[in-house]
Amino acid sequence: MGFAMVxxxxxxxxxxxxxxxRSANLVSVAQxxxxxxxxxxxEKIDEIEQRIWADGGRAVRDIATALGLPSCNxxxxxxxxxxxxxxxxxxxxxxxxxxxxxxxxxxxxxxxPMLNAHxxxxxxxxxxxxxxxxxxxxxxxxxxxxxxxxxxxxxCTGDPYCEYxxxxxx
Length: 170
Prior knowledge:
Layout: H1 13-38, H2 42-67, H3 74-89, E1 94-100, E2 104-111, H4 113-121, H5 128-143, E3 147-153, E4 162-168
Antiparallel strand pairs: 1-2, 2-4, 3-4
Helix pairs in contact: 1-4, 2-5, 3-5
């Protein structure tokens, strides 16, 4: 009895993407948890993680540009950031836009793949809000430096949802 040969081409692209993003999320969360366990300096760990996630945020512009995603106003920036974040972090985002204009978008998120990875591994979300903010702020700035992003509530700090705004810098 022989074994069937399986090629990467035999695995549907959506399944490959879901496996890759889930694995990357789990590795990132596990790495953070292990660093916190090994070293008693959460402040230094957060500084390192913020620099890593900020670099990831800066890559948002390149991915959005390669995909032809516009980013001239708050609505376009929110949509571009959402698309690129889903590409990098995978499915699991559940976002509702609560306010929308060319100069400001406010959204409420009740599902997050990064938070899901923390829950799956059973590790605390210490510092996650800082890492996420570094990614998102740098992503928005890269997409259009005339805009900024702010968070008003965060699921990873115990709030029932994340609430954010992307708005024109005044």
